[in-house]
């Protein structure tokens, strides 16, 4: 048993990195990630360690290990090794530091025993993510700022939930959320990172703009750390279950419409995380196991898909499907990796995605949630369609004049190892079952379910082939919630820059007139009252002779008034009169 908090290995690695020459930095990062994986692998049994005093009656628990944290820690650390191998061409120091901080903060969240420690790593995760996004280039500045704004809000909501949790329970230990407002704030705060609809808009806005390696790293940690925290705080929440179902369908619909490859993958993160969120919401032992297994498997095939797309962008400089074609012959290894990852995410039998999806669908059926079961099956079919589209337009459809080849060897090695993992965990699922939180009794290879899945996918392919001549390229993508948020934001800025200053100026002018009117009237209140009365009577219809008489009398009074009568026709007098009347009304009603 190793009692060293695993996150410390990555943070120390990030601190040392700037001291090393560039030629050995990548090797150092690889060493750090291997050491981190070894540290997590040596954590045996349930344990709590590295308890530090914080405030009176409170401790920070930097290392809390159980079955749930161990399995998520395994996959975070394991995929990090493969991602670092893939990142051999990334030489920028700050980018490399951000990668190690991202890994360290994700693992810190998983093994945090208290909410304060967890929140600190939660914020570090957001900061390192922001760096990975901004290193994507000039187009990443706006998405990065929007990412920061949304995650500042999410962090504030989570901090509010933690404060209420402590007020309700008297404990900061990571555990089930207290009911009421605390639960609502936890759903909103965690939901921001989990990309729950409509808090998801940052994900498809930012991930496609990150660097190639940054996209691979980002797809691993932020949303999955949020799913892990949902499993800790809100298992069995019916609201969470329905939110997950909405994510499955919503993400799928928008993914089908995308032309940008990384946008397509980003929307599929939302859809696939929806499976995990729905499973956590169901809350049975099979559902929790299925949700965590899907987290594990999704990290593998989604990281592989981002590796594939990154390799295409790295080799061709193009990121839109409409700009690609014919790469299957020129990039055969990349094409093979894409086929495996696509089949895995769609839930094709004997690949890892099928195993966890079957567990989640089985949990829904076992709980009598027929509508949810149907939505999850529709999600699998729609996902299959999306990746038929990706493979066809990128690798199969011919595109004259496009010349490319497979990426550098380290990128190929990372893709091959990740693809093999998808196959191994699909053919031998008990390797994963042995580390899940609860014992597995569900038969994922039920002959009925396997045949049913194969028939569904075969029918989809047949329909596509029959209808291929009438399928047209999508030319319109409806706006997502980010368009609404940006419109509201611009309106808020206009109000701040123009409307509020104009209102402030108007109020200042009114107050100034009231003040000057009051000063004028106090010089001779009796005469001022008579002047105001005569002015008011002049506005009433009277015979012409009487009107001229009153005008002459008013002119005489004005000339005799101390300081002259220049303020007489100031509009502030009307407001002054109203103020006096309102004050008199107040005296009569509330005092007398």
Approximate shape: elongated
Domains counted in the coordinates: how many?
A: 3
Our count of helices gives 23
- Beta-strand content estimate: under 5%
User: C-alpha Rg, in Å?
Assistant: 33 Å
Low-confidence stretches: 568-573
Strand neighbour order, sheet with most strands: 1-2
Query: What profile does the largest beta sheet have?
Result: 2 strands, antiparallel
Secondary-structure class:
mainly alpha
Q: Terminal Cα separation, in Å?
A: 81 Å
The ordered H/E elements are HHEEHHHHHHHHHHHHHHHHHHHHH
Mean pLDDT: 89
Total number of beta strands: 2
Helix-residue proportion: over 70%
Keywords:
592 residues, elongated, 23 helices, mainly alpha, two-stranded antiparallel ribbon
Topology, please?
Layout: H1 6-16, H2 22-41, E1 47-53, E2 59-65, H3 67-86, H4 93-111, H5 115-134, H6 141-169, H7 181-194, H8 202-206, H9 212-233, H10 238-256, H11 261-282, H12 285-316, H13 327-330, H14 332-346, H15 352-366, H16 370-396, H17 409-427, H18 430-433, H19 447-466, H20 481-522, H21 525-538, H22 544-560, H23 572-591
Antiparallel strand pairs: 1-2
